[in-house]
Model the fold of this input.
Amino acid sequence: MTQMTFGAAINDAMHVAMAADPKVLAFGLGICDPKAIFGTTAGLKEAFGKERVFDMPVSENALTGMAVGAAIGGYKPVMVHQRLDFSLVSMDQIVNSAAKWFYMFGGRTPISMVIRMIVGRGWGQGPTHSQALHAWFAHVPGLKVVLPSSPDDAKGLLLESIFDPNPVIFLEHRWLHNTLGEVPEGDHRVPLGKAATVMEGADVTLVGTSLMTAEARQAGRVLAAHGISCEVIDLRTVRPIDWAQIEASVAKTGRLVALDIAQPTASVAAEIVAGVTERCFSRLKAAPVRICLPDHAVPTSQALTAGFYPSAVDIVNAVAAMMAAKVPTDELVDDRPRDVPGDWFRGPF
Amino acid sequence: MTQMTFGAAINDAMHVAMAADPKVLAFGLGICDPKAIFGTTAGLKEAFGKERVFDMPVSENALTGMAVGAAIGGYKPVMVHQRLDFSLVSMDQIVNSAAKWFYMFGGRTPISMVIRMIVGRGWGQGPTHSQALHAWFAHVPGLKVVLPSSPDDAKGLLLESIFDPNPVIFLEHRWLHNTLGEVPEGDHRVPLGKAATVMEGADVTLVGTSLMTAEARQAGRVLAAHGISCEVIDLRTVRPIDWAQIEASVAKTGRLVALDIAQPTASVAAEIVAGVTERCFSRLKAAPVRICLPDHAVPTSQALTAGFYPSAVDIVNAVAAMMAAKVPTDELVDDRPRDVPGDWFRGPF
Amino acid sequence: MIYIRAVEEAIAERYAEQEMRCPMHLSIGQEAPAAAAGLCLRDTDYAVSTHRGHAHYLARGGDLKAMIAELYGKVTGCARGRGGSMHLVDSSVGFMGTTAIVGNSIPVGLGLAKAIQLDGSDAVACVFVGDAAVETGSFYETANFAATARLPLLFVCENNLYSVYTPMAPRQPAGRSIHEMAAAIGLRTWHGDGNDAEECMDVIGEAVSSIRSGGGPCLVELTTYRWREHCGPNYDNDLGYRTVQEFESWRDRDPIAVLERRLGDDTMTRTQLAAYRAWVAERVAEAFAAAKDAPFPPPGEAYTDEYADHLGQTR
Amino acid sequence: MIYIRAVEEAIAERYAEQEMRCPMHLSIGQEAPAAAAGLCLRDTDYAVSTHRGHAHYLARGGDLKAMIAELYGKVTGCARGRGGSMHLVDSSVGFMGTTAIVGNSIPVGLGLAKAIQLDGSDAVACVFVGDAAVETGSFYETANFAATARLPLLFVCENNLYSVYTPMAPRQPAGRSIHEMAAAIGLRTWHGDGNDAEECMDVIGEAVSSIRSGGGPCLVELTTYRWREHCGPNYDNDLGYRTVQEFESWRDRDPIAVLERRLGDDTMTRTQLAAYRAWVAERVAEAFAAAKDAPFPPPGEAYTDEYADHLGQTR
Ligand SMILES: Cc1ncc(C[n+]2csc(CCOP(=O)(O)OP(=O)(O)O)c2C)c(N)n1
Ligand SMILES: Cc1ncc(C[n+]2csc(CCOP(=O)(O)OP(=O)(O)O)c2C)c(N)n1
Ligand SMILES: [Mg+2]
Ligand SMILES: [Mg+2]
Done:
């Protein structure tokens, strides 16, 4: 185990994968530049050469298709977008090629590839640099969709994704890149399709991913101090969804709060509420609740984003309302600016 | 009132709109060819000229952006895709430009445009010619998303969409094009954002759109004959969703079946189940149910699609199970091939 | 060409039986580029194609029975019935797939070229495209990157003058040729008469050798003409989007007839051709019979194979 | 140029105060193409631009106070704080917007050109692009359609040699020039020294007249250089992606200095320039003061304007 950041864990996973298998490739805009995708691709070109690690033109559609073709040719490409939003130009290749190839050609040609997409937030990222479209990908049969929430998972899930014989969309929240955690050394794997119960509890099940898992843990600690016991489930993958684990938890608690880093309509949080209701209706003691972004595009001004993103405070309030309890949230309120992930961030990107 | 097909009603709406307002434009691949998008654009070029009605290269991304720019310049473009699937190359323009422009530039520049997308089914349309991605569009703030189910609505909703000052995604199911109905003459409008209660009932609320509304009506008739009274709500628009009407119905029936022409995960049906559960939890008498496509890509072979698409039979069975009743479905079973919309269809597209 | 023609005419004849239940884009009349490319490429090369892919699949040696079965939606189809006419694949001869979205398979070809470059072999990745596919951003981005990275990518562009029922005028600037533009993007280019199989062989052959010897990506534009409707088995000159004269002038230059005339009509050639035709007819009959006989996939196959498993597929 | 430079240097100076809380792409050192285009275009023309759009907005006469307020996230901003640095708009001068996805505003410009054609006016729609935007399928599809339909579209391509920190080599084929390729796609093209404002005026002026007189779409490529980091206020030559010599050779050809040298340094010119500089400094100071003073949008504005209403907006 080593203490490292989420970003370093991604970098570590890339090094481990590329060293283990010469078929693993890495490419993306800026992958070999001095900033190395927030450090996550640092050293790869030096270690594995410019044939396997390469920068590209602003041609994300063709290069996504190139990943599909390279996968057909036996390689395991890992493409990266500095913002998920840039992948919108490549939906044809993601949905019509990558997701369907194995199925539509009769189950003979696996497409082993990963597309890393970084989700932006704050510091004026604004409407087109902060979208989290995992709901779109979760809607598409054939894709696997991963959203790690800790450095350990970041490494373990990325390694598993790279060696999974299917196309995996891997969403990294920018605000997680600098979070710290213990990370196992070497070829550490975390299986896809398995959720993690990151806090056990009896009263309410909180189901989230990515940054919302951190918020849920914080909320869970505050609520515990006030006698409300939360079970926090980190989905890890939103396609496929680990229903068994969620069901078992809701069967126990009878209460659900679904958390999401995206807008609510037809979201993964909607899927969680719908799926739980269908499966556990008779066990539910209260109406399930979603906590998502407001159903609006994300504005730029810090004045407009200050209250835009849901946080532990909102979770505490929702759970308290559900339990008909009063729980103060003062200890959660800090006066740091709400549009940066931490003091280390000084802009501009 | 005139009796006409859904396709003719679309064509009628286009003629009415273009005659009423010289700013209305129409373009798309094949729009002026002899087949005229299944007849829906017939006569437009002759009536309104080649400047306003024009064919295009296979460049859907740029031409979608062109629609946005033309809208900024004061025009009301109506673009059309013979299959929704072709629009996947243009997601950047739909999501990053059309949907966000009005909001992100401070609420000053309305983007009045329509993108008609035809959803394929059957006759081997297969994995990339039959996707219904309204869940994607419903997830995106700034878009309006319309799925008409009758000739009357097709005309009224299309006219309303064309003159709505926002980007509207308008999904036409290919199997509806030849269905017949009474259609009002002239500038007939049906408001966006309002659902329609197409059958009143007391026991179960069926919420659907597009082709599923037809299936729901059929199922409703069979169930009625066996003493189960269904309220059938046709959503018409899936963004925004008319929650008031759904809520009122479920408050009355206490039971919900959500119907969709797409795969279930993070679908509009998921949204309906989640939204109803959140809003009407205490009124629900049974677990809500979704009836969607299987969570797989759509195969081509008629042997594989025969049981793939849910129909009135599945609705009857689901409702019967919910009511703990037995309802025979023999009268619904016909022996026509399940991969064509009717006898008029002889292939190939 | 004789082989491809025979297969597609057999399809056209039987389509009205409504047993091949999928959209069908025939190459009848425009077989020469496919046939030539088929001969210039090896099984160790890769190829991908489009909605109009029968000819390319067959020319590259794709299994005939598996193709016909696919059209019939049978489990013995090359995609086990999941794909239909627009999704043909036979990886045993390097034919890696055809797809149904215009421009979609182009970047896949780019990836195959990248794989070849990484493998370090002298293979070629061939992408068949129509004249309209060239209008996609996907074509341009692919050509640009292939030229930048000097990948072993070959475009064979069958310019049949139409995109569905739309001629060039609303789609591409008047007077601009595809191969000249492609050259300016950075490809080495050739062009030729797409109804002259020998000329097709010459230009594709040159392009292929250029690529094998490290010359970077190429494009060969071959002008030709589709005889039947865009999609379906019939003639469609009645629709009025093209003139009967235009059609007839191209039909008079039937690529098979052109080549046969050149072969001469001495007895030996005639006998050999007749024998070949007979052999082909038999293969075709066999393939249709086998397809009709073959079982449909069990309905449950619609719901398998969302994902590949770790063990690798061994079908 | 003096004006644009002064505004952007003021931004750079104040960025560290952490009050302009959004990504910021400065054009310092590469102002000439913007300034020239600004003069060649009229308020009845349209323009759109990219992430690096301050210079274009200002050159086209976009309201300075509204821009600075936008950077500060204030309700008086040109997008009421919803957009930030990458979303500048001032429709009163035909500047219809800048967007943050590379290639994204190009087709929007195409639509504005189509609107002009339909309007029947002699206006021009100008699209500012960088050298990397040219790599997008969006650029190509737009150029192809503009050439086909002969739309009044002008590309002003500021080739500053880099896409973020990536030079040309991994992005575009060696030895290919952007303007030559664009010509082959079907645009009328010019190229020039992007650090020579007079040359920029000449070539953009010619292109604009050509378009106004019905000559169809054009592209002008102007080679220039960004002095500061890709995004942010600092110099970044320490990063090592470009050499200090390269940077210095371009800085020595500062477009403002180049032009001033040509103006001569007689007293009259010097006095006029000094007066202009003083005037500009005052405007800039005013704009920053106003922006700092201005109120933030009320939080509720995050949740309005999902849709325009039927009455039309009258803000
Ligand atoms: C992205 C996309 N847009 C539209 C279509 C519909 N479509 C199918 S084939 C075709 C024309 C293709 O023309 P071309 O590339 O010249 O090939 P040809 O059919 O002439 O062989 C079109 C527009 C599609 N399949 N994909
Ligand atoms: C589709 C997309 N991909 C990547 C990015 C990230 N990005 C922002 S600016 C930029 C480089 C643009 O270079 P160029 O067009 O030359 O303009 P310059 O910044 O040099 O003015 C990139 C890659 C983006 N915004 N959009
Ligand atoms: Mg063609
Ligand atoms: Mg640049």
In short: Chain B touches chain D through 46 residues (CB under 8 Å).
